[in-house]
Amino acid sequence: MRYIYGIALWLAVFLLVFAYRFPYEPVFLRLITKLQEQTQAQIAWDDISANILGAKLHGLTVAMPSGFSFTSDQATITPSLSGLCLKCTQTAKDGRAQAQLTSKGVEFSAEKLEVSTGSQDLGTVVMSGNLNYALNGAGIKGELRLVVPELSGVLPMPLNNLEIGTVIASKETADANSSAVSNDLTLYGEGLDGTGNITFTFTQGGSSPSLSGELNINTTGFGTHTIKLGGTWAQPQWNLAGAQK
């Protein structure tokens, strides 16, 4: 019996030492690299600490190919049987986001997350909603809501506290070197509402996606307007077709 107890004690000490000395940080760095490869995101941070329960990151920055980026003062990465979970918090702004990476794809959700859009016109917005990116070729789908504090140069009136709801889905393209995403939009603001559809087209090796589509906006005092959208996400072109009666 003492022999068995001795073996059990040795195993317990071995496991404790193994858990303490295991190179957790390199393991999590490889997991982060995998997350970047599957989402095409660029992930950076100020410092990281890791143990058997997961990893903590401070000063996290996540940037997407579309130009969207956000920062998080606190973030955690935890492994599970189904994959990898990244949780981010913007403490001062009460914003948060979560990305779940599995063998099937990536599920992303956000609540009141302050995001830099990468667009010279939209600037910084507050984003809520969810996205699902499937690795089986089904592409991306989801719903987002953006709150834009101010948008000018689109109509002959400033657009304040504009809310944009969008239903997102991948769209087929004729070019094998490009991919497209369709956005069915609903707009609400001070003295206006509207609907529209915009397509983002991404080209391999390109930077900001190109834009195409139009918006139909009803305003109080300025009538109904159709706006054709072109250019790129970074530098959109708003072409006002004129007022309708």
List keywords for this structure.
single chain; 245 residues; mainly beta; 15-stranded antiparallel beta sheet; 2 helices; 15 strands; 15% helix; globular
Mean pLDDT: 79
Query: Beta-sheet strand percentage?
Result: over 45%
| DSSP helix fraction | 10-25%
Q: How far from one another are the termini? A: 94 Å
Low-confidence stretches: 5-23
- Total strands: 15
**Number of distinct helices:** 2
Class computed from helices, strands and strand pairing:
mainly beta
Largest sheet: 15 strands, antiparallel
Shape: globular
| Rg, Cα atoms, Å | 23 Å
H/E element string?
A: HHEEEEEEEEEEEEEEE
Provide a descriptive summary of the structure in words:
This protein has helices spanning 2-21, 24-39, and strands spanning 42-44, 47-51, 54-63, 69-80, 83-90, 95-102, 105-116, 124-134, 139-155, 157-171, 178-189, 192-203, 210-219, 223-231, 236-244. The relative contact order is 0.09. The protein has a 15-stranded antiparallel β-sheet that branches. With 245 residues, the chain is mainly β. It has two helices and 15 strands.
Task: Briefly summarize what is shown.
This protein is mainly beta and 245 residues long. The protein is built from two helices and 15 strands. It has helices spanning 2-21, 24-39, and strands spanning 42-44, 47-51, 54-63, 69-80, 83-90, 95-102, 105-116, 124-134, 139-155, 157-171, 178-189, 192-203, 210-219, 223-231, 236-244.
